[in-house]
Amino acid sequence: MAKVLAALRNNWKKSTFGACLLGWGGHWLYGKHCDNLLRRAACQEAQAFGNQLIPATMPLKKATVFLNPAACKGKAVNLFEKNAAPILHLSGLDVTVVKTDYEGQAKKLLELMENTDMIIIAGGDGTVQELHANVNLLSLCVQAAFSKIPIGFIPLGKTCTLSHTLYPESTNQVQHITNATLAILRGETVPLDVLQIKGEKEQPVFAVSGLRWGSYRDAGVKISEYWYLGPLKTKAAHFFSTLKEWPQKHQASLMYLGPTKRPPEDLEDKSSRPPFYVRLYRRLQSYWLSPEEEPEFPQEVASKAWEELKLSTIELSIATRNRHLDLRRTEDFMDICIEEESISKEEFIHRGSQKMRDPLMCPEGSQCIQASRCILRLPEGTEGSFGIDNEEYEAMPVDVKLLPRKLRFFCDPRMREQMLQAAVQ
């Protein structure tokens, strides 16, 4: 023993390094063990669903999983197969996994969605909005034939804004994924709003979170370039942004309509569904044929109903109320946040870090507007990009329309109960 202590004392640098390495290795192994315990507990709960008896004439529920292998920096497939797939299969669902990694999949997606009981999206915010360059999933889901199909969301990425509404917070990724998958099996759903964002010539883009345009968004997309600065990369990206141009102003004109009264819940359509081939033909026709052009300003609304203002801001955001879901509210609207432009560089850097945690936050001193529809006009020659559900699009004049309670998403029963209690209070 004395010789061992003497050796450690004489080689204290190596001993210290070895102790640190051993401690880190032990912590890593313990974390892996805890993750396996979480997976095992989730699988046991899923098996209870799978062991339930059903009538012999009742077919198995079909679930279609849309998984983009390129999502989450290429880790989506491994995360899904390790944490979520076993739970889904043990639950007794007839699971079909679609990997959207090639072009020309629109026809196949329509066929699958025509014959499924639930849609499951596995990925980050971008996967919800856009499965592939030519496949916009939300544009398919909001169609009348598909909007009644419940949607499950399994968060696999780091930017999963939607998961904060649907599931409890968790710092453990495995627990977060397994909780989301089990919530799908429990069957509780909540209605979520959708934004229809239409450019002058482009097909509409749909979003469940919102649209951002401004300096914070532009600086945020460049944070990865400063990876070598570690925890200082966020502040560095916003600091270097102030050196290029200051003050940073984004000018535009905005026309908007106020909130609309929420109608009573739509009655379930109990009419018999047409044959499969008829539904498939209609869906293919609606997808491939371009919709009729809408007038730039709706003629059915009196001009006096529109409010107009000129804005100059450091950032503009148009967001749904899905982050602060109120199941009992009587009006439907989206939140438009116009942030003040006159702030210091220090405040810009500090607020930029807050924006990374909550991209659609509306800081104190901003102008907040509630609207059911808005038209954003940009000056000619405006450059830059929009961020729509964390996906980048060219900045252009757009018509943003709220589609209230358009889709139903599975959620954790505890979150739904909290929403109802908050609404009563």
Automatic annotation (TrEMBL):
<comment type="pathway">
    <text>Lipid metabolism; glycerolipid metabolism.</text>
</comment>
<dbReference type="GO" id="GO:0005524">
    <property type="term" value="F:ATP binding"/>
</dbReference>
<dbReference type="Pfam" id="PF00781">
    <property type="entry name" value="DAGK_cat"/>
</dbReference>
<dbReference type="GO" id="GO:0046512">
    <property type="term" value="P:sphingosine biosynthetic process"/>
</dbReference>
<feature type="domain" description="DAGKc">
    <location>
        <begin position="58"/>
        <end position="201"/>
    </location>
</feature>
<dbReference type="InterPro" id="IPR050187">
    <property type="entry name" value="Lipid_Phosphate_FormReg"/>
</dbReference>
<dbReference type="GO" id="GO:0047620">
    <property type="term" value="F:acylglycerol kinase activity"/>
</dbReference>
<dbReference type="GO" id="GO:0046513">
    <property type="term" value="P:ceramide biosynthetic process"/>
</dbReference>
<comment type="similarity">
    <text>Belongs to the AGK family.</text>
</comment>
<dbReference type="GO" id="GO:0001729">
    <property type="term" value="F:ceramide kinase activity"/>
</dbReference>
<protein>
    <recommendedName>
        <fullName>Acylglycerol kinase, mitochondrial</fullName>
        <ecNumber>2.7.1.107</ecNumber>
        <ecNumber>2.7.1.138</ecNumber>
        <ecNumber>2.7.1.94</ecNumber>
    </recommendedName>
</protein>
<keyword id="KW-0067">ATP-binding</keyword>
<keyword id="KW-0443">Lipid metabolism</keyword>
<keyword id="KW-0496">Mitochondrion</keyword>
<dbReference type="GO" id="GO:0005758">
    <property type="term" value="C:mitochondrial intermembrane space"/>
</dbReference>
<keyword id="KW-0808">Transferase</keyword>
<dbReference type="GO" id="GO:0005743">
    <property type="term" value="C:mitochondrial inner membrane"/>
</dbReference>
<keyword id="KW-0418">Kinase</keyword>
<keyword id="KW-0472">Membrane</keyword>
<dbReference type="GO" id="GO:0046486">
    <property type="term" value="P:glycerolipid metabolic process"/>
</dbReference>
<dbReference type="GO" id="GO:0004143">
    <property type="term" value="F:ATP-dependent diacylglycerol kinase activity"/>
</dbReference>
<dbReference type="InterPro" id="IPR001206">
    <property type="entry name" value="Diacylglycerol_kinase_cat_dom"/>
</dbReference>
<dbReference type="Pfam" id="PF19712">
    <property type="entry name" value="AGK_C"/>
</dbReference>
<keyword id="KW-0547">Nucleotide-binding</keyword>
<dbReference type="InterPro" id="IPR017438">
    <property type="entry name" value="ATP-NAD_kinase_N"/>
</dbReference>
<keyword id="KW-0999">Mitochondrion inner membrane</keyword>
<dbReference type="InterPro" id="IPR045579">
    <property type="entry name" value="AGK_C"/>
</dbReference>
<dbReference type="InterPro" id="IPR016064">
    <property type="entry name" value="NAD/diacylglycerol_kinase_sf"/>
</dbReference>
